[in-house]
User: Which sequence fits this backbone?
């Protein structure tokens, strides 16, 4: 597994994003076991402590849970996938709106251009 | 938890040149610390004092609560920035040499590491390329079950693929019960494995902190910070 990290933002956050993405896309399902900290650290070539931190944060957020002696698993909370999806969508939209505004678009223009583009995408498949 | 290395106001002068001007540095167990600075900033001098090869002129340094000496040498595994293996040796002689020297040397681990690095036991040390020698020395140093590993420029003078291999070996063999201090000026290649970093300039620590927090607070990679500090 090779992942390009952006060294400008904390690596533990980027690893969390990768795992969240895998949950949202269904690559990881409820009760699936995550690789061990060491295994994943070696694969990603990062410090095991960094990975530990990613897992701890995910656990704090209720996305994964740790079972003593057996490992870390994806949470079973019903709404979790949807909540994650919403949260990640919000991040994408927020940064999109910010960039559109810095290009000088007003709110209405942004909405208009989005609906035009989605129509366009629909038309062209 | 007690720190594995603690230095306070550490100074070192060579005749009238001051190499260290009061270095304060703490290393906690289970952490990998990057000591970053250009040539001549005092990195190697600091490491040599920690390894018990040089004496400080002023200030103090404690390794596992003890001043450098026989005990600290038994728990510190040091990779110097120069070559020290003897020319007549074969790779297996170098392994034996380490085994005789250090009670905590794990021969099985050494064999695994040599294999991982594609080093042949029967090669003569003098026939090895610079990168291969670097891999051999690192293998030997990592085969000790030390509490503190001191790696002085483990990536110096090796090509990018060898660098990857060396980094892999460091991550694979790092255990939570030990600590590491690594110096380098190739920050970009190695910054992902640091817990903490300390920038040293002209014998003084000018910036130190947790690598992730520095990235978050400054919105810069450690490599960019390095360029900023030492431009």
Assistant:
């Amino acid at each position: 597994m090779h992942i390009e990290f952006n060294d400008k933002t904390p690596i533990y956050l980027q690893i969390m994003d990768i795992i969240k993405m895998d949950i949202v896309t269904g690559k990881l399902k409820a009760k699936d076991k995550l690789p061990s900290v060491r295994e994943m650290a070696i694969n990603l070539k990062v410090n095991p402590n960094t990975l530990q931190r990613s897992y701890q944060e995910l656990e704090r957020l209720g996305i994964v849970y740790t079972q003593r002696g057996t490992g870390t698993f994806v949470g079973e909370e019903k709404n979790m996938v949807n909540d994650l999806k919403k949260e990640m969508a919000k991040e994408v939209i927020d940064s999109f709106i910010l960039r559109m505004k810095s290009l000088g678009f007003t709110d209405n223009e942004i909405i208009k251009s989005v609906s035009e583009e989605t129509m366009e995408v629909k038309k062209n498949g | 938890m007690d720190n594995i290395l603690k230095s306070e106001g550490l100074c070192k002068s060579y005749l009238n040149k001051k190499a260290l001007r009061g270095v304060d540095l703490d290393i906690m167990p289970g952490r990998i610390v990057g000591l970053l600075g250009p040539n001549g900033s005092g990195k190697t001098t600091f490491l040599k004092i920690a390894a018990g090869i040089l004496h400080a002129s002023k200030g103090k340094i404690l390794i596992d609560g003890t001043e450098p000496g026989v005990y600290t040498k038994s728990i510190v595994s040091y990779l110097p920035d120069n070559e020290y293996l003897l020319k007549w040796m074969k790779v297996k002689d170098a392994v034996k040499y380490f085994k005789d020297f250090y009670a905590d040397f794990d021969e099985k681990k050494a064999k695994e590491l040599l294999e991982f690095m594609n080093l042949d036991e029967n090669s003569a040390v003098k026939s090895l390329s610079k990168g291969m020698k670097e891999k051999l020395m690192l293998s030997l140093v990592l085969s000790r079950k030390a509490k503190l590993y001191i790696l002085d420029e483990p990536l110096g003078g090796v090509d990018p693929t060898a660098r990857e291999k060396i980094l892999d070996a460091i991550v694979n063999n790092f255990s939570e019960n030990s600590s590491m201090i690594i110096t380098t000026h190739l920050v970009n290649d190695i910054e992902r494995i640091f817990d903490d970093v300390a920038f040293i300039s002209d014998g003084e620590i000018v910036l130190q902190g947790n690598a992730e927090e520095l990235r978050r607070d400054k919105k810069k990679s450690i490599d960019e910070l390095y360029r900023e500090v030492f431009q």
Notes: DSSP finds nine helices and nine strands in chain B. The two ends of chain B are 37 Å apart (CA to CA).
